[in-house]
Amino acid sequence: MTFSHKYIFYVLLSVFLQFFANTDVYGQDPQFSQFYASQLYLNPAFAGGGEEGRMGINYRNQWPSLPSSFVTYTAWADFALPEYNSGLGVLIMTDQEGRAGLRSTTAALSYAYQLQLNEVLTFRPGVSVGYMRRNVDFSQLVFASQLDPTGSFDPNLPNLTNSGLNTNLLSIDLGGLFYTETAWLGASFSHVNQPNESLTGEISTLPIRTSIHGGWKIPLASGGRKYELAYTFKERAVVPVFQYRSQADFQQLDIGSYLYLEPLVVGLWYRGLPVGMLNTLPYNESLIMLVGLSYDNLSIGYSYDFTVSRFGSSSGGAHELSLTYLFPISDERRPVVNKRPIPLPKF
Q: Taking a C-beta distance cutoff of 8 angstroms, is the pair 150, 109 a contact?
């Protein structure tokens, strides 16, 4: 296959996947390996769930070695309103898919309410309302109208395809979370209103994304969650975590563990399903390794997805970076913003 033929093949494949998906193939939302580093995207019930205010950014580049990669950016912030037993959060996300530049930009506001059920157990329901804009840019593609009689690309020939396709939609997410001082279990349901995401004026509803997630922080130091070393408190803990996610016919399980040796944090988990098939392909997807540093109010994490599916190492896996900063907003009248913070991992 010549270079030009390969180029045209990838163009046709990209266009097919993106514009004929409303028949048998459904779009999927972006995913994060460090799903607890983007809590507002995972579950609106996490809004304001920390001891202080929080802000963070996330970057993910999936399959960078393929012609059509997936790149996602998020920026978020949240804080608690203890006088109202509530929390607020805001999330901005941009996701670009494929060579055709299918871009989704989302701005969402989250609200959570905190209920202390008893001395041990707390429940937080949450809701998020987001505005999403999707558009596509054909300037990176080559179409038949731009090929001369020899099959070579001629930039002077017109592109006869509509390149101004876009749509706007409103998405509503719901979530809930039960947690104690050391464990948590939550569920979220995104796009419960199933908005129409079609770029061509047809009906193509965005499927509901379901996430069930949880974990358990197991202290390694006797007598408490932290112990004193060199006059500073360093956390030592093992934190098993999981997330099951489904959307339309797609299913996925992330399961693994973090090891806290502050300031160092390492993690290893598996993505896929041990059994089951999707269109004759196994659900096995990747092994994920993480290394992070947590110092004072700043946490920085890097993870890499080692692809174990049929894509193999040629896909380039996925690179992901996260940065979270805790900013104090307490004062003498309110020494602790949230007296029952959620014991989540930092990554």
A: no
For residue 35, the SS3 value is helix
Question: Which SS3 state, helix, strand or coil, does residue 24 take?
Answer: coil
**Angle, vertex CA 10, rays to CA 6 and CA 12, nearest 5:** 115
Length of the chain: 347
CA–CA gap between residue 133 and residue 304 (Å, rounded): 29
Q: What is the pLDDT of residues 45-83, one digit of tens each?
A: 999 998 789 999 999 998 777 766 789 999 999 999 888
**Amino acid code (one letter) for 210:** T
Q: Distance (Å, rounded) from C-alpha 347 to C-alpha 320?
A: 11
Its pTM stands at 0.81
Cα dihedral 258, 259, 260, 264, rounded to 10, equals: -100
Query: Which tokens in the block code for residue 301?
Result: 């994490």
Q: CA-based angle 107:198:128, to the nearest 5?
A: 30
In this prediction, residue 225 carries a pLDDT of 45
For residues 265 and 291, the answer to whether their CB atoms sit within 8 Å is: yes
pLDDT in tens, 146-194: 565 665 656 565 554 555 578 899 999 999 999 999 999 999 999 999 9
Residue 244 corresponds to which amino acid? Answer: Y
CA atoms within 13 A on the CB side of 164: 0
